[in-house]
Amino acid sequence: MKKKGDSIMAKKQKVQQSVPLVAIDMGSHSLRTMAAEMTEDGLLHVLGVESSNKYQCVKKGIVEKPTDAGYMINEVLKYLSNRIGVKNLPSAFVCVGGRTMQIVPISSKRDQIRKREIMQHLLDEMEMECKQRIESRYPDVSVLDMVPYYYTLDGVEQDESPIHQQATFVEANFIAFVGKKELEHKVIDSFNRSGKRMEHMFVRPDCLMNAVASEDDMKNGCIVLDLGAHTTTLTAYKGNQYLYNKVVAMGGYDITRDIEQVGMSLPYAEQLKCMYGCAQKEMAPANRRYSIPSPEHPQGKVTLMATDLAEMITARLDQIIPPLLETVNQEAFRYKMLYVTGGGAMLQGIIEYVQSKTSIPVMYGSHAAWLTADTPDEMCMPTYSSLVGTLLLGASYRETHPMVKETGWKVFDILTTKTLEIFTDQVVAERPAAPTKSEQEV
Questions:
Q1: Which residues partner with 33 through β-bridges?
Q2: pLDDT at 60
Q3: Most C-beta atoms within 10 A of its C-beta, which of 145, 178, 220, 356?
Q4: In 3D, which of 186, 200, 203, 201 has the Cα closest to residue 245?
Q5: Which DSSP letter does residue 376 get?
Q6: Are the C-beta atoms of residues 143 and 176 closer than 8 Å to each other?
Q7: Is residue 398 classed as helix, strand or coil in its secondary structure?
């Protein structure tokens, strides 16, 4: 005879199977998507992945052509649904980045008049208040994501979520990731054109940090260096808060273009970089020569020494990496580890190169610990870290916002149909007369 708990678990598993977690990473090189289910052990069972580079509609993190992006979103979700045997995938979590992204600390306070249980809707209201405060002061920016880093209940700082605890005075402290308004608007426009629903938008630095860094890393101090196609991002984290985020508008694509100038086509340059590129000249084979077809060349081909290829790669990395590391190197003692991830992490010798530029220990950022044992090795490559991080944040988001999963509404859509004033027994914290130093930097 089945127990009541067994039927509940079976029903839960059925729901998870019918509504898988789906993540989309809108990168400059391609649009990629991944579907997965969260196991009882808190691991991700990957169901399938799909990608498309039919249109180059994203540049330096910003969607330039929402119509093309919408077509690709619809296309990859259709292919993904066929791959995993699901009739339809109506929605997805999305991961975005961009060169205009910055971080801003901000807080919200509530006086509940008397000691009351803290519910999720209260924290959502406080988060929305912070979002609206920033955007009202700076009309040209949008808050892309809000990351809570600590709460205070009746003057006592909390180590964990305050949900279901009781307090009179509640203070929520957030880190807001902000960027140019067009970044958010064009992503939303892309989903609208695709006919699919965006469940929630997460920022790439937060996705990567959750995918590759452990709780001890976040507590003791760590850095994630994301080597993308058109942008390279460095994010520093310590004591449960983001300290620093800087983006350089150069990446792996610039290296490919440098190689292209030798006289080969862009696809051949990309292939040569990925297969034989070295980040340091001393690591390249001294006497190896590569011959690449080139119809425009008098001999029908171009030749390139392995050491010359490495020098070209190193020259471009010298323009990208040292400026990013300059600030964190001044306080290197604060950080215990630097993780390298993104497509550029596939370059041979990249760890050794980065290590030569900093005293902070450097290693590859791996998300493999979050995947079930039956996951193909390919899914452990750093190019999938942002998708895995998005799925992890998406799973957490669904836990705290079950109404979103059941009704299909996005929580901000629900909240914006109300006003803060309807909570008549709560007092909204007064807005400071002048912006803080951190807010002035936006």
A1: 24, 50
A2: 60
A3: 178
A4: 203
A5: -
A6: yes
A7: helix
* Sequence-ordered list of residues with C-beta below 8 angstroms from that of 89, at least 6 positions apart, any chain: 20, 22, 35, 77, 78, 80, 81, 196
Per-residue buried b or exposed e for 404-432, using 16+ beta carbons within 10 Å of the residue's own CB? beeeebbbeeebeeeeeeeeeebeeeeee
Range of weakest confidence among 28-37, 95-104, 358-367:
95-104
Phi, psi of 105 (to 5 degrees): -80, 140
Cα–Cα dist 262/254, whole Å: 14
**Integer Cα distance of 224 and 206 in angstroms:** 10
pLDDT tens per residue, range 381-427: 998 999 999 999 999 999 887 755 444 444 444 343 333 332 323 33
Give alpha helix (H) positions in 330-427. Answer: 350-355, 385-400, 402-407, 411-415
d(CA 233, CA 249): 9
Q: Are 177 and 101 in contact (CB under 8 A)?
A: yes
Give me 11's structure tokens: 């029903």
- Measured in whole angstroms, the distance separating CA 392 from the mean position of its chain's CA atoms is 11
Most confident listed range (40-49, 236-245, 425-434): 40-49
Radius of gyration of the chain measured on its C-alpha atoms: 23
Residue 430 has what pLDDT?
33
Average pLDDT for the chain: 83
Whether residue 296 is predicted with pLDDT greater than 90 in this model: the reply is: no
pLDDT at residue number 343: 87
* Token output for 284: 């390249």
Q: What is the pLDDT of residues 358-372, one digit of tens each?
A: 999 999 999 999 999
Whether 24 and 94 have beta carbons less than 8 Å apart is answered as: yes
- ∠ at Cα 343 (338, 349), nearest 5°? 60
**Residue-level length of the chain:** 442
Phi, then psi, of 110 in degrees rounded to 5: -135, 135
The residue type at 238? K
CA dist., res. 93 & res. 95, Å (int)? 7
User: Cβ distance 230 to 249 under 8 Å?
Assistant: yes
* Measured distance between the N- and C-terminal CA atoms of the chain, rounded to whole angstroms: 62
One-letter amino acid identity for 5?
G
Model confidence at 298, pLDDT cuts 50, 70, 90, reads: confident
- Type and span of the H or E element at 79: helix 66-84
H or E element: which one contains 316?
helix 306-329
- CB atoms < 10 A from the CB of 307, how many? 17
